[in-house]
Amino acid sequence: MNNAELNPIKDRSMVESAVVGNKGVLRAQLIDGFKRDKFIIFCFSLLLVYLLASLFAPVIAPFNPYDLSQVDILDAELPPLWEEGGDPRFLLGTDAQGRDMFSTILYGTRISLLIGVGAVLLQTLLGVAIGLTAGYFGGKVDSLLMRIADIQLSFSTLMVAIIAAAVFRAAFGEELYGELAVVILILVIGTVEWPQFARTVRASVLAEKQKEYVEAARVMGFGSSRIMWRHILPNTLSPLLVIFTLQIANAIIAEASLSFLGLGMPVSEPSLGALISSGFEYIFSESWWIAVIPGVVLVLLILVINLLGDWLRDMLNPKFYRM
Amino acid sequence: MALLEVRNLEVSFRTREGIIKPLRDVSFTLNQGERLGIIGESGAGKSILAFAILNLLSRPGYISGGQVLFDNQDLATLSEKRLRSIRGSRVAMIFQDPMTTLNPVMTIGQQMIESLRAHRKISRKDARVIAIQKLKQVQIPSPATRIDQYPHELSGGMRQRVTIAIALLLDPLLIIADEPTTALDVTIQAEIISLLLDLCVSNNVGLVLITHDLCVLSQMTRRMIVMYAGRIVEQGPTKEIINDAQHPYTQGLINALPQLSIPGTELKQIPGAVPGLQHVPSGCAFNPRCEFSMDICTRVEPGFTCSGGCSVACHMVEELVNSMGEDL
User: Are B153 and A21 in contact (CB < 8 Å)?
Assistant: First the structure.
């Protein structure tokens, strides 16, 4: 037996690491770091549970909280199963209107995540387009777009959302607002926070623009938009991925805050924030679960997303990555 | 017929300190299939010349005078749309550092196929066939597997072969190579040079080779241009200039080559440095560094004098030629 045969695994892994592509290296690095960190595996699994639960909410939930015929006011304010007086039909108890808390939370998480992801997708679209344009063209275009970004950042998300919601309600009435609440919240949160993405993309584009492959692409006779979107953008994806994650947490918080203030989702179709809000008045009348359980669910969701975002940032930053 | 004719090209940069001119009064012609070398120190304006030929100067630079006639079209005044159809397909460019000229997140195949399809209406499949064929032409082993790899999976020499393949992709009439071998080590440099030379000869492609390496230049070109501080100082057949340089700057460049055969000899250098573009000396730009500098050199910018097959911008050479003419 010669040495090469003695050491087949080591040799193969060396060959593999030399052969996989750039994306492959990144992927291998991520998977590697992922496997080593038990805590991140836990966070990721929890996020997966959240995602699956909200995706399959209609299947999992024992009741449909939107269907008033399933709600009985006599079941109101029943405590969770493990408390004295708990009803076996209601795992996490019921709220003041007799809705099953477990089902309501499932549906609420679904709405919170939907708004979070939707708003951030919109932010990404706007931010990437604006940041890419500003960074690539530079000069006056850059100054103009970045000043607009500064102005946008000086308005707080909540303030803009409150004004937008108030104007919409005044103009089109409460009923239409209730129907379109999800869309309106996505639009408002999505359009307010694009500067985060624009700034990040612009910074990366400025660095990438100096590299010769951009020059080479121009020499090949490619147009500006093709160079921007096909050549530069894919090289700026790692920082984007990180803020994408962190911004989802921010968007969910923004939505929850609005709903808590009574300006977000209507009570008939509650998100987690609206649930906390509706339970808040009962918190001192012994029905603590109506506010606390959705609160814990929300905090845990935000925490998990933020931890994953931080972890991604560390992983994608070569300075932080240790062998 | 001339493939490329540059006439009195002038490039300006708008800066806070005013307008500076990194390229002044550059004229030369290149015939079909001819190979021309451009040499000069860093800052002489070689790369700016390359980009000016393609009208690709980025702000704050712009062409402020002269013409770039390629195939009887003036690239300096052509519309952006027409320019884009010429770039890449008729005139290609090879850059110095093959590590950064290829996009790190696209496979070689993707980059080649995209270039082909940007200029020709062909299917992805046909483009791939052409790409593989070109990779084979630049002697890349097993091109069919290499084509799906990312640039970082290839060695430096291999990557430069790929950039040459990309340059040849659309069968251009002219290739501008901006220091194509500077980033490579000597043995690979030799391989790349002979490859580029073979390909240019067999495809009858014109080559403008920009370099600061006299050895590379003498191997690859028949004619050469020496540039100093944005101006041409000497132009003529490569052999003649290398054997018998007229301009003191060219002589200095040739003398500065290290002599390997005589160990222990001190390296010669041209004293001083290339002037900054804001402070180009009056008269002949080279005069503060020139050992033959005369009174007139600091006052009057020299015109071109024909000496043998070369044209030289130097007062001393002018005087020499004139006195020889009187003797006859």
Answer: yes
Q: Is A230 on the interface with B (CB under 8 A)?
A: yes
Cβ-proximal residues to A5 (8 Å cutoff; 6+ apart), any chain: none
Smallest Cβ–Cβ distance between A219 and the set B54, B100, B114 belongs to B54
With a CB cutoff of 8 Å and minimum separation 6, the contacts of A201 are: A127, A128, A131, A132, A135, A233, A236, A240
Q: Does the beta-carbon distance from A219 to B102 stay under 8 Å?
A: no
CA distance B120 to B115: 9
Mean pLDDT of chain A: 81
What are φ and ψ of residue B190, in 5° steps?
-60, -45
Chain A residues with beta carbon closer than 8 angstroms to that of B94: none
pLDDT at residue A212 is higher than 90: no
pTM value? Answer: 0.77
Residues contacting B160, CB < 8 A, separation 6+: B94, B98, B180, B181, B183, B184, B188, B192
Mean pLDDT of B143-162: 90
Can you point out the beta strands (E) in chain A?
A: none
Nearby residues of A279 by Cβ (< 8 Å), 6 or more positions away: A95, A96, A287, A289, A290, A291, A292, A294
Question: Is residue A132 over pLDDT 90?
Answer: yes
| Tens digits of residue pLDDT in B37-83 | 999 888 788 888 998 998 888 878 889 988 899 988 898 888 888 88
Spatial distance between the Cα atoms of B151 and A211, rounded to a whole number of angstroms: 14
Nearest to B67 by CA among B84, B83, B55: B55
- Which among B47, B95, B105, B146 is the top mutation candidate for probing chain A, defined by the most A β-carbons within 10 Å of its own β-carbon? B105
- Edge-to-edge order in the sheet of strand B2-15: B18-31, B2-15, B61-70, B73-74
Residue among A21, A221, A231 minimizing CB distance to B150:
A21
A105 to each of A50, B243, B321, how far by Cα in Å? 11, 88, 97
In terms of C-beta density within 10 A (0-12 exposed, 13-18 middle, 19 or more buried), how is residue A310 classed? middle
**The pair of three-digit structure tokens given for residue B156, joined into one six-digit string:** 């430096």
Amino acid at B70: F
Contacts of B92 in chain A (CB under 8 A): 219-220
Cis? peptide before A79, omega within 30° of 0? no
Reported ipTM: the value is 0.80
Residues 6+ apart with CB under 8 A from A74: A98
- Which of A12-16, A262-266, B73-77 has the weakest average pLDDT? A12-16
Convert B271-290 into a string of H (helix), E (strand) and C (coil). CCCCCCHHHCCCCCCCHHHC
The 10s digit of each residue's pLDDT in B272-323 is 877 777 778 888 888 888 888 888 888 888 888 887 788 888 888 888 888 8
Q: Is there a contact between A221 and B101 if contact means CB atoms under 8 Å apart?
A: no
Residue with tokens 């093959």: B98
Interface contact A219-B118, CB threshold 8 A: no
